[in-house]
């Protein structure tokens, strides 16, 4: 049984760094799981779009696809545009079965990667003193994602024994300037910004420039196509791929090939 094709769906941007990160992430996934067919698509601004990618897969004879939103701030809810995309693809290609996974989300494992990025920025800027942190993201995300981002800030604060505030780049929450002001009101003067972004898009560039202009000692690079991100993409893919397996009410796998043995759900899995 062939594994479903993995479609990574990223928020598009006119900044080519977004495209390069998506391509690098695809290469990392291929390195980690060469048996899984993967491709990239964009919700806006870049090509190919998700609709175009699903059309191409159907044209190649692909029968199953799992779409994984490359969104670090939403934990459960996906972009509402996915509903229309899936319905359109289903109408045009009824033979193509599609599952949309949860977003990558603000997982705790990404804090280690955030630390790595910030340490590199601090070293490059030759920072010798640090007394405050800002965890900056693209947007506030869904309700669960917002709560988790706040929790990640608390965890980061506890780990480094430094105060940490959150900031968002799209105006849906406190800006990096407001977060800096909040820390300075506590007497903090040597403040660094950790960028909880997938790629260096326009939002990241604006918040990074603003943070440096108002005195941040360092701003980290985005998380990028690191193995930690790829592992989370594969985990989301594996879970959503299970929805495409035909099980009966007793949990037995119903093969379309009569020569293929039946199996229970406990023995059929896509390893993450």
Write the layout of secondary structure elements.
Blueprint: E1 5-10, H1 16-32, E2 38-42, H2 50-59, E3 64-69, H3 81-92, E4 97-100, H4 110-124, E5 132-137, H5 143-160, E6 164-168, H6 176-184, E7 191-196, H7 202-213, E8 218-219, H8 227-241
Parallel strand pairs: 1-2, 1-3, 3-4, 5-6, 5-7, 7-8
Helix pairs in contact: 1-8, 2-3
How would you portray this structure in words?
The chain is of the alpha/beta class and 272 residues long. The chain has 2 domains: 5-105 and 226-244, 3-Layer(aba) Sandwich (Rossmann fold); 110-219, 3-Layer(aba) Sandwich (Rossmann fold), CATH 3.40.50.1400. The chain contains 8 helices and 8 strands, in the order βαβαβαβαβαβαβαβα. The strands form 2 sheets. Strands 2-1-3-4 form a 4-stranded parallel β-sheet, with helices on both faces. A 4-stranded parallel β-sheet has the order 6-5-7-8, sandwiched between helices. β7 (191-196), α7 and β8 (218-219) form a beta-alpha-beta unit. It is elongated, with a radius of gyration of 21 Å. The model is unreliable at 256-272 (pLDDT under 50).
Question: What are the salient characteristics of this protein?
Answer:
single chain, 272 residues, alpha/beta, Rossmann fold, 2 domains, four-stranded parallel β-sheet, 8 strands, elongated, disordered C terminus
